[in-house]
Design a protein that fits this description.
323 residues; ten-stranded parallel sheet; 13 helices; 10 strands; globular
């Protein structure tokens, strides 16, 4: 079944879905229509260096439409950064109000700010009239409790947001438990805004459950599912034109990703660490991969890493998230 009437968005995963990953992924797979970049933190105007915006430089993001994401809670700094991004060519901005990590939440950023609807209300009233780009928000059901969402939605309805991207968990849940579809349904019926669904789409059955439950939703964000199965978006859409074997395509994707990161990282430890991070998601998607994956993750040098990865692929392992 083809799902060509939907939009699939690559979720922002800090340390994973940067411009290098996005570009390499797009050269080997298909099905993703746009990506939200990992967040850029606000800071004083004098401290904003060009290197902090490199990930969303339009000239480096020609394969996927990218929407920058801002993390912050100071209106003046947010406006300054949003305007700088607009001047770079970005007409859409996303505000991260969903990051669940406690270090960020304790500073009243990310999902930590969801406890203070009045503060968000004030920030939106000051930000939106003073930026040229449209603004969307990426949120959770609340920081501590899922009923926090209703005060938040009533507040958001007072502002002209492009959309609400809702991950139906609370911040303190992190990624534990399951996405709360009942809460998501109540939320979309309690707001005038359009919604993007985000959370736990990891294979075709999980996508179909969401699509069947919410037929009016046409935009879906996927993060960990893409890292675990890079084919997932094209499988959902049923539009793949690539006739190569899945294993051949995965190996080519891995090898190009390795080469591109090798150009960026100054030391072998950083390069190996980044690549092993991806194996933490991708590896378990291979059948009977526990032992060889452990060998890859325990490597301490680049030669050992490349040798073990080559040996792994040479064994023709079965990549089993078949559509």
């Amino acid at each position: 079944m083809k799902n060509t009437d939907i939009t699939i968005i690559m979720a922002p995963l800090q340390g994973f879905t940067d411009v290098t990953f996005r570009n390499v992924w797009a050269r080997h797979f298909s099905g993703i229509d746009e990506a939200i970049a990992p967040f850029i933190s606000t800071m004083g105007q004098q401290r904003l260096k060009p290197i902090r915006l490199k990930d969303v430089a339009p000239e480096d993001n020609r394969h996927l439409l990218v929407v920058p994401q801002i993390l912050g809670n100071v209106a003046e700094d947010f406006i300054f950064l949003a305007q700088r991004l607009y001047e770079m060519g970005h007409k859409r901005i996303n505000w991260n109000l969903g990051c669940p990590h406690s270090k960020i939440a304790k500073k009243h950023r990310g999902s930590g700010l969801l406890l203070y609807p009045a503060k968000i209300d004030d920030l939106l009233a000051r930000i939106i009239p003073n930026i040229s780009a449209t603004l969307s928000v990426k949120i959770r059901l609340g920081r501590r409790a899922k009923d926090e969402i209703f005060d938040l939605l009533a507040m958001f309805d007072r502002h002209p947001l492009e959309e609400i991207i809702l991950h139906p968990r609370t911040g303190i849940q992190m990624y534990e438990g399951t996405s709360d579809h009942d809460a998501f349904e109540k939320a979309i019926h309690s707001s005038r805004h359009s919604f993007t669904y985000n959370g736990d789409i990891i294979d075709i059955p999980s996508f179909e459950r969401v699509r069947d439950r919410f037929p009016g939703i046409k935009r879906f964000m996927i993060g960990r599912g893409i890292l675990s199965n890079p084919f997932l978006a094209e499988e959902i859409k049923g539009t793949s034109q690539n006739t190569g074997s899945r294993l051949t395509r995965l190996r080519a994707f891995h090898d190009e990703l390795f080469v591109e990161y090798e150009k960026l990282f100054s030391g072998p430890a950083h390069l190996a660490g980044r690549m092993k991070g991806f194996w933490g998601y991708l590896g378990p998607s291979f059948k009977d991969s526990k032992k060889p994956l452990k060998h890859i993750l325990k490597t301490t040098s680049l030669p050992a890493y490349t040798d073990r990865v080559a040996a792994f692929f040479d064994q023709n392992p079965e990549f089993y998230p078949e559509p």
